[in-house]
């Protein structure tokens, strides 16, 4: 076994006990092709040049690192927001889809498939396919198609075909199953653009590398603003974990930086309606890798619940399972209600309407506030609490346009 | 020597292996369906352990798994149902399933209970050869179970040889890279099977995926030791009150 750092899995794709490639033989050729080529392709200077220029000119990077003064005052410390919400298409997802479409092009693939939950990854995939003039098929759970109608319309306008996943629970995990099946049935010309740091090796590592631009920018932006590249805390929400992986990446080997991952606990961790995978999950295999998985005693995958469709996933990426297992990461959770409150708070304090997913990260500010910490369902190690001298970066992974229906409903209920 | 080796020693061709889902269509159907398959002349049975997220299966088999799970099927229940089943079912039986439920049950405990049943072999399509060699293979071997790998037309010759060397019992040739239940271009399948035949592999070869009736079964048997039928059989028993009658009719039509 080669040694693993947090940043890099070993040759078989393991971060500690988690990762690997648990795939049927029918996927072997595709996954092996990707595994044997991805690093050479990504680090080819011509690839980097095109990737960087698209991130800059098309996606609008670098995204600002914004000192949120009123929020800082509210929580008695210094808080910066990493503005992934200002990316083209409205979330960090486009960092990954730009990288993967360039990779697919170099692999000679003519057809792109993707899964989507909230529709953000589907939109980001449809966008880059339009950019490159490539056929795009997006699998989306029948239930999610109903609850995320505006994003379905966006994908269609961008020229993608949206196929409802009607099996199982008809949400993100089933859309992922259908996308994988499509890939099995189209083994030669198709590339599967996975939307998070999940799936068989090399996907978790590859997606983390594409998203790592988030923390790369945080480092130099923070240096410009504070004289130091290192914050004391980085906070991010975790569905599969791609925005968190990107925001943590260049701090993984910096032990002084507290990495705080926030999961969605729905109606409460133990309510039966939750998506807090590290607290409810057990080691298992889902979608091609070994990680923590929410499941019954008999090993059947259970349907999670979160008000935010992007966090409504019964697993997490193997990197995060390892960060949890090793204690390198602090894993917290926020309920539907806490996320809603945090969204309304940010709108009023800073004039920014966040995505519901990102609002979970914002909600965790309440738990870490040294003045009056709110009761958290997950234990909080004392070192994770803020002091007035902390420098906290929250990854604002997306904007709230897609969630206006939910926010409107919340306002009516008040 | 277990039942699989005995079968292949006695019979070299036209081996008919039929897949059924445990606990489908009724929770208690498991053993009666196997018995009906055997009585109709099936040589071997692949018994599916239902899973919520069966990646390598198509919609028909997934729907049967969903039904079986709703019926209350679990691995523990399955082993209870199999207690004493060898008094009725003497053909080789292979358990097919996915890693996650097996890991939750406990991999070693699972192998032990399978061997006790006694089951003859395992197919776990999402257990890749790296994990097999480093962790799970020795446990499977310790309990005397066969382990069957899949190969596809996309599998390189070198890799086919490797998977053949790791497999015991037989090698499962997937007739094209695909999930179960898709129709196949039989000419392409033939080329692939001929290629396998010319490689003079250690294991017998059974062909699966896309075999649905007498003509496709016969064609598959031309260049392989036999074939596996899954989706077509599940369809034949999914909407009938007389499962045993439907089973007999389905198998008789193929073997006639
Ligand atoms: C804005 C936003 N943030 C976060 C997520 C969750 O994904 P991940 O955990 O991979 O960042 C999503 C997924 O749809 C999203 O749209």
From TrEMBL, chain A:
First-tier enzyme category under EC: lyase
Catalytic activity: (1S,2R)-1-C-(indol-3-yl)glycerol 3-phosphate + L-serine = D-glyceraldehyde 3-phosphate + L-tryptophan + H2O
Keywords, in A-Z order: Amino-acid biosynthesis, Aromatic amino acid biosynthesis, Lyase, Pyridoxal phosphate, Tryptophan biosynthesis
Keyword Secreted: no
Pathway: Amino-acid biosynthesis; L-tryptophan biosynthesis; L-tryptophan from chorismate: step 5/5
Pfam families linked to this entry: PALP
One GO cellular component term: cytoplasm
Molecular function via GO: tryptophan synthase activity
Residues found modified as N6-(pyridoxal phosphate)lysine: 93
Xref: Gene3D superfamilies: 3.40.50.1100
Tryptophan synthase beta chain-like PALP domain: residues covered: 59-368
EC number: 4.2.1.20
Keyword Glycoprotein: no
InterPro entries xref list: Trp_synth_b_CS, Trp_synth_beta, Trp_synth_beta/beta-like, TrpB-like_PALP, TrpB-like_PALP_sf
PANTHER family xref list: TRYPTOPHAN SYNTHASE, TRYPTOPHAN SYNTHASE-RELATED
Subunit structure: Tetramer of two alpha and two beta chains.
Family indicated by similarity: Belongs to the TrpB family.
Role summary: The beta subunit is responsible for the synthesis of L-tryptophan from indole and L-serine.
Name of protein: Tryptophan synthase beta chain
UniProt source species: Niastella vici
Gene: trpB
From TrEMBL, chain B:
The UniProt record lists the keyword Zinc: no
Keyword annotations of the record: Amino-acid biosynthesis, Aromatic amino acid biosynthesis, Lyase, Tryptophan biosynthesis
Active-site residues, as the UniProt record annotates them: 46 (proton acceptor), 57 (proton acceptor)
Enzyme Commission no: 4.2.1.20
Reaction catalyzed: (1S,2R)-1-C-(indol-3-yl)glycerol 3-phosphate + L-serine = D-glyceraldehyde 3-phosphate + L-tryptophan + H2O
Family the entry assigns: Belongs to the TrpA family.
Subunit structure: Tetramer of two alpha and two beta chains.
Protein name: Tryptophan synthase alpha chain
Organism (species): Niastella vici
Source lineage: Bacteria, Pseudomonadati, Bacteroidota, Chitinophagia, Chitinophagales
């Amino acid at each position: 076994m080669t040694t693993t750092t947090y940043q890099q899995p070993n040759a078989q794709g393991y971060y500690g006990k988690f990762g690997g490639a648990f795939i049927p033989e029918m996927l072997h050729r595709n996954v092996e092709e990707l595994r044997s080529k991805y690093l050479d392709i990504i680090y080819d200077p011509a690839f980097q040049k095109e990737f960087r220029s698209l991130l800059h000119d098309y996606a609008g990077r670098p995204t600002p690192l914004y000192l949120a003064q009123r929020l800082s005052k509210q929580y008695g410390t210094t808080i910066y927001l990493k503005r992934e919400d200002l990316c083209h298409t409205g979330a960090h997802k486009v960092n990954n889809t730009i990288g993967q479409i360039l990779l697919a092009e170099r692999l000679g693939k003519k057809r792109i498939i993707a899964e989507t939950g909230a529709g953000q990854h589907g939109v980001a995939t449809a966008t880059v396919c339009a950019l490159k003039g490539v056929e795009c098929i997006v699998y989306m759970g029948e239930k999610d198609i109903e609850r995320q109608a505006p994003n379905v319309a966006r994908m269609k306008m961008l020229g993608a075909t949206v196929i409802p996943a009607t099996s199982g629970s008809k949400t993100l995990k089933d859309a992922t199953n259908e996308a994988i099946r499509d890939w099995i049935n189209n083994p030669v010309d198709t590339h599967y653009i996975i939307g998070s740091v999940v799936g068989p090796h090399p996907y978790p590592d590859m997606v983390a590398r594409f998203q790592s631009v988030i923390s790369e920018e945080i480092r130099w932006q923070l240096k410009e603003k504070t004289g130091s590249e290192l914050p004391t805390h980085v906070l991010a929400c975790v569905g599969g974990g791609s925005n968190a992986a990107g925001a943590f990446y260049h701090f993984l080997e910096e032990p002084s930086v507290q990495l705080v991952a926030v999961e969605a606990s729905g109606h409460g961790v133990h309510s039966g309606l939750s998506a807090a995978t590290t607290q409810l999950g057990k080691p298992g295999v889902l979608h091609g890798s070994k990680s923590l998985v929410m499941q019954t005693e008999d090993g059947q995958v259970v349907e999670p619940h979160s008000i935010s469709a992007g966090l409504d996933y019964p697993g997490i990426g193997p990197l995060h399972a390892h960060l949890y297992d090793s204690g390198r990461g602090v894993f917290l959770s926020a309920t539907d209600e806490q996320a809603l409150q945090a969204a309304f708070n940010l709108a009023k304090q800073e004039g920014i309407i966040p995505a519901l997913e990102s609002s979970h990260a914002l909600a965790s500010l309440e738990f870490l506030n040294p003045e009056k910490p709110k009761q958290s369902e997950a234990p909080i190690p004392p070192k994770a609490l803020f002091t007035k001298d902390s420098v906290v970066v929250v990854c604002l992974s997306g904007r709230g346009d897609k969630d206006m229906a939910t926010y409107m409903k919340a306002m009516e209920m008040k | 020597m277990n039942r699989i080796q005995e079968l292949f020693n006695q019979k070299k061709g036209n081996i008919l292996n039929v897949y059924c889902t445990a606990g489908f269509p009724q929770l208690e159907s498991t053993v009666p369906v196997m018995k009906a398959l055997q009585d109709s002349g099936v040589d071997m049975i692949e018994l599916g352990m239902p899973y919520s997220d069966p990646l390598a299966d198509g919609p028909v088999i997934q729907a049967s798994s969903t039904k079986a799970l709703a019926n209350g099927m679990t691995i523990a229940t399955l082993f209870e149902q199999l207690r004493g089943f060898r008094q009725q079912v003497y053909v080789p039986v292979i358990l097919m399933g996915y890693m996650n439920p097996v890991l939750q049950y406990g991999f070693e405990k699972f192998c032990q209970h399978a061997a006790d049943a006694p089951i003859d072999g395992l197919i776990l399509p999402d257990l890749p050869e790296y994990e097999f060699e480093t962790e799970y293979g020795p446990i499977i071997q310790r309990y005397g179970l066969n382990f069957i790998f899949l190969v596809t037309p996309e599998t390189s010759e070198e890799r086919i040889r490797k998977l053949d060397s790791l497999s015991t019992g037989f090698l499962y040739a997937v007739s094209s890279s695909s999930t179960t239940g898709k129709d196949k271009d039989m000419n392409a399948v033939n080329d692939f099977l001929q290629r396998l035949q010319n490689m003079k592999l250690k294991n017998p070869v059974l062909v699966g995926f896309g075999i649905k009736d007498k003509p496709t079964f016969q064609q598959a048997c031309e260049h392989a030791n036999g074939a596996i039928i899954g989706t077509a059989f599940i369809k034949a028993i999914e909407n009938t009150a007389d499962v045993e009658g439907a089973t007999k009719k389905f198998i008789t039509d193929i073997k006639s």
